[in-house]
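PROTEIN DESIGN WORKSHEET
SECTION A - STRUCTURE
LENGTH: 334
TOKENS:
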């Protein structure tokens, strides 16, 4: 055991990465199935019970595609770009506390690490658009850069109220600070801004402007196929899971059970179970948005960010600071 113990972090990390990849593949089926239900149609129902093996069929089809790289592209950057998108999102999960004892790393700057990784993820999309030497892909990459840079500002500001209340940038400390009440009760405005910014950061409908099919063919991944195309999809679904997990951690108590169930048998459930239930709720919320809302124009998206999201995030931060200093809101030592 003495020889195996140093390997425990690597084993835990490998298990978490494998689980995340499998979850991302499973979410492809969940999304298509749920959209089918909400739109009053069947959805995938041929491969396996209820179409549950549809993701496996899709994966085999993608792996069977030719690994085509256009001659006019910048070959090295073209191949590198999809790996940047997938790896940066996977690295963000290193600071996620899945339960009291499950998590790769408990950094005291975990929140800043999350912001850094989400900032780096945009390079994959931008480089994909630029290296493709395709006008539609280039426009998609430029949209992604402008969209991400804009909404990163509001995402960061929306989380500062939580930092003021918890007194720490550590995600585990933020969860533990919600022992006596979730932050959503006082940070509902910050939660709203964070969710909108998270949707924009993950390029999901209604903010999927970088890959708008009706305007840009497929946007930044127009020239991609095979495994490289699959990596972009992996990064997108991992991004949805990541934003859902961060929403749960920052505003909904993470792996902690709801307060009204504290004296019931449900409170005895492992923290990982509560965490998964909450994250699944927000993933379904992301999917429902895709079926419900139309896509805005790109100028409307940026105007909404700077004219609406920025003032709301500043009002939330200022209000939280005032209430914290006056003692109305409790929290850790900042």
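SECTION B - SEQUENCE
RESIDUE ASSIGNMENT:
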């Amino acid at each position: 055991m003495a020889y195996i113990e140093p390997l425990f972090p690597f084993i835990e990390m490998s298990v978490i990465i494998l689980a995340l990849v499998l979850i991302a593949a499973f979410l492809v089926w969940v999304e298509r199935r749920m959209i089918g239900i909400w739109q009053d149609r069947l959805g995938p129902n041929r491969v396996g019970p209820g179409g549950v093996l549809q993701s496996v069929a899709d994966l085999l089809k993608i792996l069977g595609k030719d690994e085509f790289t256009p001659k006019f592209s910048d070959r090295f950057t073209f191949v590198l770009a999809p790996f940047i998108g997938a790896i940066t999102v996977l690295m963000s999960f290193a600071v996620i506390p899945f339960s009291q004892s499950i998590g790769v790393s408990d950094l005291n700057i975990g929140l800043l690490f999350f912001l850094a990784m989400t900032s780096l993820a945009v390079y994959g999309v931008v480089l994909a658009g630029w290296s493709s030497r395709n006008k539609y892909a280039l426009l998609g990459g430029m949209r992604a850069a402008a969209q991400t840079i804009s909404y990163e500002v509001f995402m960061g500001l929306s989380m500062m109220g939580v930092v003021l209340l918890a007194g720490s940038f550590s995600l585990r400390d933020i969860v533990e600070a919600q022992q006596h009440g979730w932050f959503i009760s006082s940070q509902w405005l910050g939660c709203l801004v964070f969710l909108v910014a998270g949707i924009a950061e993950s390029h999901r409908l209604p903010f999927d402007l970088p890959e708008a099919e009706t305007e840009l063919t497929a946007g930044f991944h127009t020239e991609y196929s095979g495994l490289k195309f699959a990596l972009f999809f992996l990064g997108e679904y991992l991004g949805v899971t990541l934003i859902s997990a961060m929403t749960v951690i920052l505003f909904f108590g993470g792996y902690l059970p709801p307060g009204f169930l504290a004296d019931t048998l449900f409170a005895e459930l492992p923290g990982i179970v509560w965490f998964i239930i909450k994250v699944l709720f927000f993933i379904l919320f992301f999917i429902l948005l895709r079926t419900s809302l139309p896509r805005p124009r790109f100028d409307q998206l940026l105007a909404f960010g700077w004219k609406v999201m920025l003032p709301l995030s500043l009002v939330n931060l200022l209000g939280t600071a005032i209430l914290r200093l006056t003692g109305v809101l409790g929290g850790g030592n900042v």
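SECTION C - NOTES
The radius of gyration is 21 Å.
The chain has a mean pLDDT of 85.
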